[in-house]
Design brief:
Keywords: Membrane, Transmembrane, Transmembrane helix. This protein has about 120 residues and is an all-alpha fold. It is built from 5 helices and no strands. It has one domain.
């Protein structure tokens, strides 16, 4: 079953809602902390996923696959930052490996999607 870019738009919207809920619940963390950096990367990933998922002038100019790829890389980096801030070895391993997998998907999408299944319009 082929999947569409619209799903990534929904993912981006969900990531942005999660970030907004975090801000409401805990306030804005200092940007010089690891949590602040992780949240900034998380929001940027959500924006790129959203831009790649729905039609807009940026998507027409850059390409949906590249935008989604950058979003995946950002989400993977955010997961890696989360793993780095945790003390549990199991958590570090799971989030680190998952983050690396997302980065691999993202890099492949940015380079044109040769190795992983790419979405259809």
């Amino acid at each position: 079953m082929a999947f569409t870019f619209r799903r990534f738009g929904y993912l981006g919207a969900f990531l942005l809602v999660l970030a907004a809920l975090f801000f409401v619940a805990f306030g804005a963390p200092p940007l010089d902390s690891l949590t602040g950096l992780q949240l900034v990367v998380f929001v940027v990933a959500g924006v790129f996923e959203l831009l790649g998922g729905f039609g807009n002038p940026i998507r027409e100019r850059v390409g949906a696959l590249r935008l989604v790829g950058v979003g995946h890389v950002g989400l993977g980096v955010s997961m890696g930052l989360s793993a780095a801030s945790e003390s549990s070895l199991l958590f570090q391993a799971l989030f680190g490996l998952t983050g690396l997998a997302l980065v691999a998907f993202g890099v492949d999408y940015v380079l044109g999607g040769r190795y992983f299944e790419t979405p259809t319009e």
